[in-house]
Amino acid sequence: MPDTIAAVATGSQVAAIGILRLSGPLSHTIADRLFRPSSGRHITDYEDRKLVYGGLYAADGALLDLCLCTLSHAPRSYTGEDTAELQCHGSPTLLRTALEECFRLGARQALAGEFTKRAFLNGCLDLSAAEAVADLIDAESVECAKNAAAQLSGAIARKTEEIYAALTDISAHYHAVLDYPDEDIEDFRLESYKSNLREAEAALAALLKSFERGKLMTAGIPAAIVGRPNAGKSTLLNALLGYERAIVTDVPGTTRDTIEEKLRLGSLLLRLTDTAGIRETEDAVERLGVERSRLAMERAELVIDVLDGSTAPDAEDLALLREAERCPKAVLVLSKSDLGAGVEPPETRLPTVVLSARTGEGLEELERVIRDLFPLPEAPAGEILTNARQAEAVGRALESIRAALAAMEAGQTPDIVLTESETAMAALGELSGKNIREDVTDRIFRRFCVGK
Length: 452
Hints:
This protein has helices at 27-34, 92-104, 114-121, 127-138, 142-152, 155-179, 194-219, 233-241, 284-299, 315-325, 363-373, 388-409, 414-432, 438-445, and strands at residues 5-8, 15-23, 35-37, 52-57, 63-72, 83-90, 108-109, 221-227, 259-265, 268-274, 302-308, 329-335, 352-354. The protein is of the alpha/beta class. It folds into three domains: 5-110, Gyrase A, domain 2 (2-Layer Sandwich); 155-215 and 387-437, tRNA modification GTPase MnmE domain 2 (Four Helix Bundle (Hemerythrin (Met), subunit A)); 220-373, Rossmann fold (3-Layer(aba) Sandwich). The strands form two sheets. The chain has a seven-stranded mixed beta sheet. Strand 11, helix 10 and strand 12 (329-335) form a beta-alpha-beta unit. The longest helix is centred in the middle third of the chain and has 26 residues, at 194-219.
């Protein structure tokens, strides 16, 4: 029999509401000992999932709080076990005291992610849905939240289960003919399953392709603002953020180090790095800043090259522009348009935006250009992979499906094709948790917070 776990499910800071959760065979007994409904009945007398008002009491009978309590009975609960939840006032001291009372009555401290882990082990969630819980908690944009919520409802599982079922049919038919040759079973013709393998290949390829966008959705797009000293980089950073994050002066070289901030542009999350002005210098400190600027530029998925639009570009400006053109995605910004018309902009294949970070003119155009550089995938919400473990498993499944098709095209024996198909099934089983090692499961749930 599993033990009973308890944890404060809300943060450790003072808040209006604080939630204490229990799961396991003693959870209802503990709740009945600590909580007294205002009606005078026992909390265990109420129907499943009924929210009840009453008092929370310590072992010595002292009233700790007036709060709400609800019980859920196995298997119709989040974890699949008997659970109890106390919704108290959000005093950390109060919640800690109540938690210690739970420990005194036989519960133990829940580990990080242990509630969701129990939900997975008890079959209430598949592994991809369980991982979506953490993604939903960590979501920093509406798109991330929608995608995680759809995965929590089983979007990834439904997508891969169709492929898994088709591969299972192929394997089952082959082994049935092989093991029961005297039975009246339709002959196994490998060619008849080619379309199934082609459909599986297309679906897995689309799923894997979504991971590139998924990474950027969750982690954010590494973006570097680069340019010569006094080009207007820090002013642009402040304008995009909407507050004075970087020091701005008329003295070139004010920024000596990189400054990092997150910025949401509609559906995009940018991890913006304002860099030191890039130029040849004898100053040891400034030279270190320039080296960090070039490193940030190399690591960026997006480079915003800021050029002072009020003056003619010099050789260093043009050299930096050529470097930006070799980056994965880049945009040229001609700054300081409020100072009047400058010279002709340099020729470049990069999208170019003329703006004034001081007045705000052109900022909306820059945001539009950046959004166009990173369009949302066509995949429905929930079918965008955001998890490296899942992407790796899908990649292995896709590789095996392609190997099976290649073996079929080469006219090899059915057993070789079936071996590759079953390897793909094993990889897909890792997505749902059908085939997963215990150490991998433990590692997955360590990223969760305590109480979830």
